[in-house]
């Protein structure tokens, strides 16, 4: 099977990592890069830095990775779809639902692979967590909780913390729970003087009854990335920044200390931290994109799924603006 000719649009903070991985990935030939802002990270190597998506298409690519700011996703994606080019667009899919709908329909109508870069689905801790849940380790799942907190990233200017960060958690939580969102309630704040929100607390419920909550902000002076799933047999806790997974098992022994027993729904059992094979999630994501193009797998996050994530994110913003919960 011949290698796929790949181009990367946008070689800034995120795109530079796509360039590095595309160069190294078996089955990909990185043949072109484009960025109107030039190559500030020096990743182009011996490739000319093209100035537009049109020039990228003219380079004869068969697949594209789009890592430009969100507001430019639709224009680039529609041109790539018209040219018959399989495309992976960085999350979120688009700046608004109408744009995301147009993009999704364009790729579906053309019979092309249209993927969204929700890289957390390729995190080794979350992959292992999802497998263990599917195997019944937790029994019935009760709740999914996420934390995604860090200092403000200077690279972000076109969207707030909900569309930039919370969209990751919206996608991974529904993927882990195995069901879409049914209801959300959210609150946001603007503490740093910027136009967009920088802090979110959100809660909700999936259609299968599992509860969900998210804590997301750009105002924490350390990086915190956690996904916690609680079920009838215990809890699985993923540190997604490090790719670590720990199982906290419900205890099998009755508590004989009355003062503690009165405050506990379950007792503490064994704690197991799993040793995992860790591969860079972005490399896994690109490999899934390559395999989908070759008709070998369906492990990508489709544009249709990315559109569903956008609906939840928009519902969160609506809830925050109205003070009411929103049914999806």
Please give the structural blueprint.
Layout: E1 4-9, H1 15-24, E2 28-34, E3 49-50, H2 53-58, E4 63-66, H3 73-82, E5 86-90, H4 97-110, E6 114-117, H5 124-134, E7 141-151, H6 161-177, E8 181-189, E9 199-206, E10 211-217, E11 219-231, E12 234-239, E13 244-250, H7 258-261, E14 268-274, H8 281-293, H9 303-322, E15 326-327
Describe this structure in words.
This protein is an alpha/beta fold and 328 residues long. 32% of the residues lie in helices and 30% in strands. Helix 3 (73-82) runs parallel beside helix 4 (97-110). It is globular. The termini are far apart. The model has no long low-confidence stretch (mean pLDDT 94). Residues 127-236 form the GFO/IDH/MocA-like oxidoreductase domain. GO terms for molecular function: nucleotide binding. Residues 4-118 form the Gfo/Idh/MocA-like oxidoreductase N-terminal domain. This is Gfo/Idh/MocA family oxidoreductase.
Brief description of this entry?
The chain is of the alpha/beta class.
Describe this protein with a few key phrases.
Gfo/Idh/MocA-like_OxRdtase_N; Gfo/Idh/MocA family oxidoreductase; 328 residues; 32% helix; single chain; 9-stranded mixed β-sheet; nucleotide binding
